[in-house]
Amino acid sequence: MGIVYLNGEYLPVADAKISVDDRGFLFSDGIYEVTPSYRGRLFGWERHLQRLLKGLCELRIDQDVAGLEEIHRRLLTENDLTDAETALVYLQITRGAAPRTHAFPREPVPPTVYAFAKAWRRPSPERWERGFEAVSVPDRRWARADIKTVSLLPNVLAQQASVDAGVDDALLVRDGMAVEGAHQNFFAVFGDTLVTHPASNVILHGITRGYVLEIARELGIPVEERAIVVESLAHATEAFFTGTTTEVRPTTRIDGEPLGSGEVGPVTRRLAEAFRARIEAAVTDAGVAAD
Ligand SMILES: Cc1ncc(COP(=O)(O)O)c(C=O)c1O
After folding, report:
1. Ligand 1 midpoint to CA 253 (Å)
2. Which residue's CA is the nearest one to ligand 1's atom 5?
3. What domains, with CATH codes, occur in the chain?
4. Which of 44, 181, 219, 238 is the most buried (most CB within 10 A)?
């Protein structure tokens, strides 16, 4: 049985209990973060921590983050994940438990801090080579999609729409623009240029997105951060999603139509390989969880 962290304790998941007054339960009043681990080493920890701090600040949740990295490491150890090729640590911080009122509790309450670790698996190389199919879905989220809140109902419904359509991914469309996926960022290639939505309030500023943009610039691939008109995808030669457990994931069909040649393209392949190399360099670097 998995060992989780809850408010200062490590305990079996079945023993981890929160109050029905928790504002995460009542209002989705909280944020979360997902940090990957490769063979027991956290990858990109500083970036994930910075995004978490931004979210805490936006929601005005007062939580000390000094001990969080240690909690992540200990969860990997407690759950025998230090040798796992790919694992993750999920962390959630809510405003805490208090009698239900919309405004913040008048007397501050301690935030609820919950974390668990688990393994995840990459698709097989053969599966990856076949590419993945997406369905476009209206983006029903609020105007602060840049805050990683646990309020994910529109994302849940969008992802379910992809399941119902018998495909792999959901592409969120807002005002005619392909903004991102239900839990991943979106890129397309037009000519020789890599395009992705700007890091505005309507998308989550993915850590993987940031790495991929850096890598593309290092490789001399022209990059544009601009909105993508969904109809223009008919002229894209390649597309892919990025995310912590997605890494770089080729999209070869959207709404039943082949994208470009309908096969995984060279830019996607180059970026996927370079991103893997970046991870390897960081996690094999003298035991330091560099990024
Ligand atoms: C809506 C959304 N976009 C993008 C991402 C990818 O972000 P990251 O690369 O930091 O995992 C996520 C991750 O959960 C997400 O929920």
Report:
1. 21
2. 184
3. 3-119 (3.30.470.10), 125-280 (3.20.10.10)
4. 181
Q: Is 144 within 8 Å of 201 (Cβ atoms)?
A: yes
Report pLDDT digits (tens) over 58-72: 999 999 999 999 999
The catalytic position among 17, 54, 118, 148 is 148
CA distance 291 to 278: 8
Query: How far does the centroid of ligand 1 lie from the alpha carbon of residue 94, in Å?
Result: 19
Residue nearest atom 2 of ligand 1, based on CA coordinates: 183
Q: For residue 145, give the ligand 1 atom closest to its CA.
A: 1
- Dump the DSSP string for 54-83: HHHHHHT-----TTHHHHHHHHHHHTT-TT
259 CB within 6 A, ligand 1: no
* Helix locations, the chain, DSSP H: 23-27, 45-59, 68-78, 125-130, 153-164, 207-218, 266-283
Q: Can you give the C-alpha Rg of the chain in angstroms?
A: 20
User: Of 87, 99, 82, whose CA–CA distance to 37 is shortest?
Assistant: 87
Q: Please state, in angstroms and as integers, the Cα–Cα distance from residue 80 to each residue in 20, 73, 84, 286, following that order.
A: 31, 11, 8, 21
pTM of the model: 0.97
Instruction: Establish whether residue 247 lines the binding site of ligand 1, counting it when its CB lies within 6 angstroms of any ligand atom.
Output: no
Q: Is 95 in the pocket of ligand 1 (CB under 6 A)?
A: no
CA angle 130, 136, 138 (to 5 degrees): 155
Give catalytic status of residue 118 as yes or no.
no
- Residues with Cβ within 8 Å of 150's Cβ and at least 6 positions away in sequence, in order, are 24, 28, 30, 31, 32, 92, 94
The 10s digit of each residue's pLDDT in 22-50 is 999 999 999 999 999 999 999 999 999 99
Whether 206 lines ligand 1, by a CB cut-off of 6 Å, is yes
